[in-house]
Amino acid sequence: MEKFILITCLLSCPILVFGTEGIRECPGLPVPQFVNITGCDKAPCALKRGQNAEMISGFLSNEYSDNLKTRAYFREIESGVAGEFPLPNDKGNTCDWLVSTTCPIYPTEDVTFMLSMPVLLIYPKNMDLDLKITVENEDKTILTCFQVLAYTT
Questions:
Q1: Which domain covers residue 128, as residue numbers?
Q2: What is the CATH number of the domain that holds 76?
Q3: What integer is the mean pLDDT of 127-131?
Q4: In the chain, what is the greatest distance between 2 CA atoms, to the nearest angstrom?
């Protein structure tokens, strides 16, 4: 039921941000067909501590994959400190968050997935971040990637 409500909300109020200021391709990696970040019509996007950052994205699969994993990376702009945002297992398993399809996925298949990324209260306020979101398969091949500027509130 939670997934249905989230899908309905995201699809009824999509805000296309791919191609606007702050959304970038990852050099040399496949780009998504679209990215909608809830509550963000123009990057940098606000990440509210204590809440989940919600997004929906789509890409064209370039190969067969049994399993998919979403990963989120950050670089704090001022200090340059970088790392991976730890996603809970139930959020990082992309196969559980596919819309209108299931794993395995096939070459040339249009794939839409959702991401609900926890923004923990322990994260400092007013951090300017460069985020990178990827989806990789069981061979660690990246199937899609995008970058977006964000900040914590």
A1: 2-152
A2: 2.60.40.770
A3: 96
A4: 42
